[in-house]
Amino acid sequence: MSDNEMVLVVAGYQDIDTARRDFLATAALVRARQLATRGMILVTKNAQGEVRLEHTGDDHGHTGLGWGTGVGVVVGLFAPVMLGTVVVGAAGGALVDTFTGHRLRRVVHDEIGSALGAGSAAVIGVFPAEHRLAVELHLAGAFLFSLVESGPTDLAELEAELDQAMGKFVPDRTVLPMPDRSFGGTAGRTLADSVADWSMIPGPRAPAGAPNVLIVLIDDAGYGAPDTFGGPVRTPNFTRVQERGTTYNRFHVTAVCSPTRAALLTGRNQHRVGFGSIAEYPGPFPGYTAAKPRSCAALPRILSENGYVTGGFGKWHLTPDNVQGAAGPFDHWPKGWGFDHWWGFLSGAAGQYDPIITLDDSVIGVPTAQDGRQYYFPDDLTDKATEWLHAVRAQDPVKPWMMYYSTGCAHAPHHVAKEWADKYAGQFDDGWDVLREKTLARQKELGIVPPETELTPRPDLFPAWDSLTEAQRRLYARQMEVYCGYQENADWNVGRLLDSLEEMGDLENTLIFYIWGDNGASLEGTTTGSFNELTFLNGLVLDADQQTDLIEQYGGIDALGGIHTAPHIAAAWAHASNTPFQWGKQDASHLGGTRDPMVVSWPTRLRPGDALRTQFTHVIDIAPTVLEAAGIPEAKTVDGIAQEPMDGTSFLFSFDDSIAPERHRAQYFEMFGSRAMYQDGWWAASRPDRIPWDMSPATLAQFGPDADWDPDRDVGWELYYLPDDFAQNRDLAAEHPDKVRELQELWWAAAKENHVLPLMGGMSAIYGILPPMSTVTKFTFAGDVQNIQRGMIPRIYGRSYAIEAHLTVPAGGAQGVVVAHADFIGGFALWVDAEGVLTHTYSFLGVETYRQKADAPLPAGDVRVRMLFEATENRPGTGGHVTLFVNDEPVGDGDLPHTVPIAFTSYSGLDIGRDNGLVVDRDYEDQAPNAFTGTVQRVVFDLMPMGHADEKALHLHHAVENLAHGAAG
Question: DSSP letters of 549-585?
Answer without folding.
Answer: HHHHHTT-GGGTTSTT-B-B--HHHHHHHTTTSS--T
